[in-house]
Amino acid sequence: MDGRVRLRHPALRDAQVAALAQRGIAAIPGVRQVEINTLSGSALLLYDSSRLGRDRLMEMGVAWAVWLDEARAGRIGPLPQAGAPH
Description:
Layout: E1 4-8, H1 15-26, E2 31-37, E3 42-47, H2 54-72
Antiparallel strand pairs: 1-3, 2-3
């Protein structure tokens, strides 16, 4: 659905990882709200589709998936940059 996306990743079950991810994702221009459920390992993102297009959202999703994979392996590195060029 345009303006709303749900993501699932096992690393989001870790409260520390979830808190970092929530803060980082919320800083992305165009993201209105981020709700993370650590029981299900999911994140609900509400975003302004006129400011954040689906292609850009998918690019950033790939960067976050890599970060979450690393975090799950115990290597919590710098958060993906919200304003990084694509």
